[in-house]
Amino acid sequence: MSRNSKLARIHLAKLKAETCSSCGKILFCVSGECPECGCMSRASLKDQEYRKLLESLTGKTSCHDMNDNQLRKVMDLFDRAGFAKAYPYEPPPERKQKYAVIRQIERRAKIVLGPGWAIRVDGFCTKTFGKSGLTNLNPVQLRNVIGWINRLDKSQKKKAGETK
Questions:
Q1: Where are the strands (E) in the chain, listed by range?
Q2: Dist. CA 53–CA 59, nearest whole Å
Q3: 128 touches 137 (CB < 8 A)
């Protein structure tokens, strides 16, 4: 991972981080309570807290001044707090492939599902995977969406053949 990628990932973690109001633990969990103390109250990580955290970990208050090993320490801290699990890293080539598959689904869905295709696809994603929208799906789930569209197309063609 390049230095710029590490910096971007750390700064994204800083934006997404929350602290427990009771125990002060850094959290990235989606659930409502702190895994340590069970407290439901959280607040976003303040810049002063972030700088103190960096200084206690590396001796520097800015990521810009850190070397690669120090950046790795900061990334590891955020990952142990749950950042990697909550926001998994997607390398750029995989991201490009993912969006190519999404464009393919959109083209195919317009043909097979008709004018209300976006609502139907979103409903399928929510019902099947519990996630709204194609961008929140992983590659396996996207393939399942393509399969669903193809099965619908096949059944529609079969019904059209029976009515003739």
A1: 18-20, 26-27, 42-44
A2: 9
A3: no
